[in-house]
């Protein structure tokens, strides 16, 4: 890692969060250079798969589909050429949907610098394997580059927290967490994305940070279902609170830390995702609560609601570790159409009287 921070950063994925995070990185480079009274020495590239869309965004400096009305920095490179974006980058940011990540890594591997650092923004579990995104990165890049998973495990970070993209694109102040295997690596990445409106904190709990980001999508589906059923604030607050207990139980069973789940990557992200109408997962849940089938919800949504695809993998992971997750079970039963929406109310808060704590 260069002591002064990354010289070149590639952001892969030009959806709402990828585009917004590329803006954060470009703004950070400009602000840092201004503070030191130096020329901007860092380049940031944003890659998307659609050449017409990226050409339009490069020309207008606006990503109309995903972050309409937000002008992107002039110095931000915008391209549909994957090799050009990744070549020479010492920080590569993965902002693609969780279920597309492995295939994208295969394409990236041939252009990736051996000593590059990888930062995952995706919040999901791989459907077929149940792996967290950092595990997918280490496994797939280890295989595709021939360097082995250990090499990439030590160089892979994750970013999580309350990350509603449109609010951040509008430069509303927010905080997030960069988690990495080592403190110096997390700090190096955090400095590269610190701006006057975006404040990254750091930790070394990759497991807890990722689990918080994964399960909150499932809980947000449950809150959305409650909203669609016209349940009140008491119901939704109860689901959020018990959802945090479920998330914490799973994280601790996998080796995560309690304090992570009470922080930005746990409680912070959960509250934002469950409360905001900007949340894709809450919106998808609301459509389910209104009576749409899972297939109809998928057709209605213009962006990926990661919780729909990750929920069965979360439940399978919980069962393997003996973790009780009644809200997740209820959401999965709805997605599998094993129960009707009329049957969901008693299932969202569990079935037995027990202590309020996070223990099973």
From TrEMBL:
Binding positions (substrate): 123, 280-281
Gene Ontology terms for molecular function: glycerol-3-phosphate dehydrogenase (NAD+) activity; glycerol-3-phosphate dehydrogenase (NADP+) activity; NAD binding
Matching Gene3D superfamilies: N-(1-d-carboxylethyl)-l-norvaline Dehydrogenase, domain 2, NAD(P)-binding Rossmann-like Domain
Keywords noted in UniProt: Cytoplasm, Lipid biosynthesis, Lipid metabolism, NAD, NADP, Nucleotide-binding, Oxidoreductase, Phospholipid biosynthesis, Phospholipid metabolism
List of residues binding sn-glycerol 3-phosphate: 123, 161, 216, 269, 279-281
One matching Pfam family: NAD_Gly3P_dh_N
Primary localisation category: cytoplasm
Keyword flag Nucleotide-binding: yes
UniProt family annotation: Belongs to the NAD-dependent glycerol-3-phosphate dehydrogenase family.
Protein's job: Catalyzes the reduction of the glycolytic intermediate dihydroxyacetone phosphate (DHAP) to sn-glycerol 3-phosphate (G3P), the key precursor for phospholipid synthesis.
Protein name, per record: Glycerol-3-phosphate dehydrogenase [NAD(P)+]
Naturally occurring in which organism (per UniProt): Kocuria rosea subsp. polaris
Gene transcribed to yield this protein: gpsA
């Amino acid at each position: 890692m260069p002591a002064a921070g990354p010289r070149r950063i590639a952001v892969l994925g030009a959806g709402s969060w990828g585009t917004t995070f590329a803006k954060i990185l470009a703004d950070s480079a400009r602000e840092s250079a201004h503070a030191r009274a130096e020329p901007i020495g860092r380049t940031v590239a944003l890659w998307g798969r659609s050449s017409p869309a990226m050409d339009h965004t490069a020309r207008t400096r606006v990503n109309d589909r995903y972050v309409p009305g937000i002008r992107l920095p002039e110095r931000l490179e915008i391209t549909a050429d994957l090799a050009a974006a990744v070549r020479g980058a010492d920080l590569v940011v993965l902002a693609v949907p969780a279920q597309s990540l492995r295939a994208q890594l295969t394409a990236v591997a041939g252009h990736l610098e051996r000593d590059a650092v990888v930062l995952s923004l995706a919040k999901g579990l791989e459907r077929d394997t149940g792996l967290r995104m950092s595990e997918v990165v280490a496994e797939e890049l280890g295989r595709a580059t021939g360097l082995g998973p250990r090499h990439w495990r030590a160089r892979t970070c994750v970013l999580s927290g309350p990350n509603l993209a449109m609010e951040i694109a509008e430069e509303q102040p927010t905080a997030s967490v960069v988690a990495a295997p080592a403190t110096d690596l997390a700090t190096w990445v955090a400095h590269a994305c610190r701006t006057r409106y975006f404040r990254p904190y750091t930790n070394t709990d990759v497991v807890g940070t990722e689990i918080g980001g994964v399960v909150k999508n499932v809980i947000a589906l449950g809150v959305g279902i409650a909203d669609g059923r016209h349940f009140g604030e008491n119901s939704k607050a109860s689901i959020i609170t018990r959802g945090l207990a479920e998330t914490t139980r799973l994280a601790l069973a996998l080796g995560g830390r309690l304090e992570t789940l009470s922080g930005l990557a746990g409680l912070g992200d959960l509250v934002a995702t469950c409360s905001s109408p900007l949340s894709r997962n809450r919106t998808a849940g609301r459509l389910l609560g209104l009576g749409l089938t899972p297939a109809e919800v998928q057709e209605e949504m213009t962006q990926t609601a990661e919780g729909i695809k990750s929920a069965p993998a979360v439940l399978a992971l919980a069962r393997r570790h003996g973790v009780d997750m009644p809200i997740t079970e209820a959401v999965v039963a709805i997605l599998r159409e094993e129960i009707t929406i009329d049957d969901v109310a008693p299932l969202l808060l569990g079935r037995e009287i027990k202590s309020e704590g996070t223990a099973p």
